[in-house]
Amino acid sequence: MFFQRIAKYLNPLTLFQKGDKNFNLRMMHGINRISIFMFLFCAVVLIYRYFFR
Q1: Helical (H) or strand (E) element with 23
Q2: Cα–chain center distance at 53
Q3: pLDDT tops 70 at residue 15
């Protein structure tokens, strides 16, 4: 259940759905998604560099 919520939150298809009416809340969630994607990308790059250098 916990991982399903995270998967739905990070799903790019739900990024542009109209959900909350509060603009500030939508922008906050958008910035949070971008930061999570950047963190995951950087973690993958660091793991790759650790094992293949």
Answers
A1: helix 23-51
A2: 28
A3: no
